[in-house]
Design a protein that fits this description.
The chain is an all-alpha fold. The chain is 76% helix and 2% strand. It is built from 23 helices and two strands. A two-stranded antiparallel sheet has the order 1-2. A hairpin with a 2-residue loop joins strand 1 and strand 2. The chain is elongated.
Length: 640
């Protein structure tokens, strides 16, 4: 049962923090302690690889196991979450803080359950818990439009979740088991349903096209929720699942082309959307879709190890950038990048943020640069044009990373009032961002060849070998993207990319939300209204007519009852009454007369009997003699 500890400890602590509601200082101390304990447990579980099987019933089991591909994410989740929870307890408003921190901690337990799952049933439980907790975090400010935005994000991912239920059904019908180890035995049409269901669920969860816009709805949540959701939990679940099941998924011929195509389209589209964003958090959200698109390319190319390595690097720098964006929004009082320029007011944080933006731009020698180069190599192994498009996506990431840094934490281009002191970050915010920044820098060891062999042994899989043109092209795209952003910044044109009206459509995910509203939501609502009217007019009308007919028939039956049945009852009662009267008179004439006659006879017999009582002996002797003669006569007659 030790495999359950990284799951149960944060889940229990999260529920306890919500119910207990301690002071900010106590909450921060307890939350950090829980985070560090969970991190230690995760490291131990990743190293010791314990397993656990709990009988569910009807042949089903809850199975926990440590797959090699899950070792790094198991440790990443509590590490990133601890920094984010520390930021939350120091930065967020006191009102509702215990609820938020409790959900953040519970989020870790739910994600650990998903990562440790060894079967589809356990995976589904973790999968649904992650979705439910993310809804609670996005809707944290429940008196604002946040709950409606949370519902949009929840419904988008829930639609994809149906695929996972279909996959589980196909696996169980084919093998009688939901264990990952038995999925290879699924064949034929059941395997097609299995793979299609897993892909649908993963694409929706990781915000790939056409599901990418739900991440913008998720931005309604507080900064810590966005940081954890984008970096190591909710969005990471989809790509992790594809990497975990890649050996089974790759047996279906269409999986690899589909994964590569969806990943490339999302990486390029997400990059363009991020380039023209004026909202700081939306820029980072679009980049999340783009970066997970690159991971999808790696999985489709047959290199799940590369996808997991980039997932870890992305988790570190994306958490850093979201926390930094939260500080910038609080300090400037606006989400707009053009309203920030906090480089002088928040110089230490600007330097730390530069670490994250450099990692996002894939600038060597940071570890994220190595993982991006491996994605390029993986794509080129599929086809040179795939690697080239990955390089283009990398150039876009360099442009929007530089744009975020220059606008949010660059020096102000005009004299402006410094942010209010109350909005300035404290030691807690700086510490959280610094921890993540140091981790981004430490990940630079991935460039060492000795680490590549260690990754292949510990995580499993292989690292692709890149060529000179791939590395040169990738570094050249990063340089061009960064230089283009800097040039526009020097000319004062970097913040005005969304001034052109057509770019508003691009910034809103190429009008995918509007198209969804027009072609899916609106028709569905019209169909629902039409069905409601049909129900009112036709169904309810038929029911009303049937009810009217039934009521008229009932009224007729009631009148018949009054006339026939009740009349018969009344006639019977009258006849019975007349009979009773006749019988009463008969009784008076016959029964009473008989009784009275018998009484008179008995009375006369009594009077005659008294005459015999004379008191003379010879009279009694005469009676005895008469009686004896009568008795003898009767006996003689009887004996014949």
């Amino acid at each position: 049962m030790t495999a359950w500890l990284p799951v149960l400890v944060p889940l229990g602590a999260g529920i306890g923090a919500w119910a207990w509601r301690p002071t900010r200082r106590v909450l921060g101390s307890v939350a950090l302690a829980v985070g560090l304990i969970t991190l230690a447990l995760a490291v131990w579980v990743a190293w010791a690889e314990p397993t656990s099987v709990v009988a569910w019933g009807a042949g089903l089991e809850l199975r926990l196991e440590v797959a090699p591909i899950a070792r790094l994410p198991i440790v990443l989740v509590p590490f990133v979450a601890t920094a984010i929870v520390g930021y939350a307890t120091a930065h967020e408003h006191a009102h509702g803080l215990a609820r938020m921190v409790g959900l953040l901690i519970a989020f870790v337990g739910a994600m650990e359950l998903l990562l440790l799952a060894g079967d589809l049933l356990t995976l589904l439980i973790g999968w649904e818990l992650v979705g439910a907790i993310s809804w609670g975090l996005i809707a944290h400010e429940w008196q604002t439009p946040a709950p409606a935005k949370a519902a949009q994000a929840f419904n988008a991912t829930r639609f994809g979740d149906l695929g996972l239920f279909l996959a589980a059904g196909a696996a169980f019908s084919a093998t009688g088991s939901l264990a990952f180890s038995d999925l290879a035995r699924v064949t034929g049409g059941a395997r097609t349903v299995l793979v299609a269901g897993v892909v649908l669920a993963a694409v929706a969860k990781s915000a790939q096209l056409p599901f990418s816009p739900w991440l913008f709805s998720a931005m309604a949540g507080p900064t810590p929720a966005s940081a954890l959701l984008h970096s190591a939990t909710m969005v990471a679940a989809g790509v992790y699942l594809l990497a975990r099941l890649e050996p089974v998924l790759a047996t279906v011929g269409w999986f690899s082309p589909l994964a590569v195509t969806l990943g490339l389209l999302t990486a390029l589209a997400g990059g363009v959307v991020a380039v023209v964003q004026d909202d700081a958090k939306r820029l980072l959200a679009a980049s999340t879709s783009a970066q997970y698109g690159l991971m999808l390319v790696a999985v489709g190319a047959g290199y799940p190890l590369v996808a997991i390595a980039h997932l870890v690097a992305h988790g570190l720098f994306k958490a850093l950038l979201f926390l930094s964006a939260g500080v910038a929004v609080s300090a400037s009082g606006s989400n707009r990048l053009a309203a920030m320029a906090l480089g002088r007011a928040l110089r230490p944080l600007a330097i730390l943020t530069a670490t994250g933006t450099a990692a996002l731009a894939a600038v060597p020698p940071l570890g994220a640069a190595w993982t991006k180069e491996q994605v390029v190599a993986a794509g080129a192994h599929v086809a040179p044009w795939v690697g080239l498009l990955v390089i283009v996506a990398g150039g876009l990431s360099a442009f929007y990373a530089a744009r975020f840094q220059l606008l949010a934490y660059g020096p102000p281009r005009e004299r402006r009032r410094a942010p209010a002191v109350g909005n300035m970050p404290g030691a807690g915010e700086h510490t959280a961002v610094a921890v993540l920044g140091v981790a981004c820098i430490a990940l630079g060891v991935l460039w060492l060849p000795v680490v590549h062999g260690w990754l292949e042994r510990v995580v499993g899989g292989t690292v692709p070998t890149g060529t000179t043109w791939e590395v040169a092209g990738s570094l050249g795209a990063v340089a061009v993207g960064g230089y283009a952003a800097y040039t526009r910044y020097r000319r004062g044109r970097l913040a005005r990319l969304t001034a052109v009206p057509p770019l508003h459509t691009v910034a809103d995910w190429f009008a995918i939300p509007a198209a969804t509203e027009a072609f899916i939501v609106a028709p569905t609502l019209r169909l629902a209204h039409a069905a409601g009217r049909f129900d009112d007019v036709v169904i309810d009308g038929v029911v009303a007519r049937i009810a009217g007919t039934a009521n008229r028939a009932a009224a007729g039956f009631a009148r018949a009852d009054d006339r026939v049945v009740d009349g018969g009852v009344r006639g019977t009662a009258a006849a019975a009454a007349r009979t009773a009267q006749v019988l009463d008179r008969v009784a008076e004439l016959s029964v009473d007369s008989t009784v009275e006659g018998l009484a008179r006879v008995v009375g006369a017999a009594g009077r005659d009997t008294r005459r015999v009582q004379t008191g003379q002996t010879h009279t009694y002797y005469a009676l005895i003699a008469i009686g004896t003669v009568v008795l003898v006569a009767v006996t003689a007659v009887w004996s014949r």
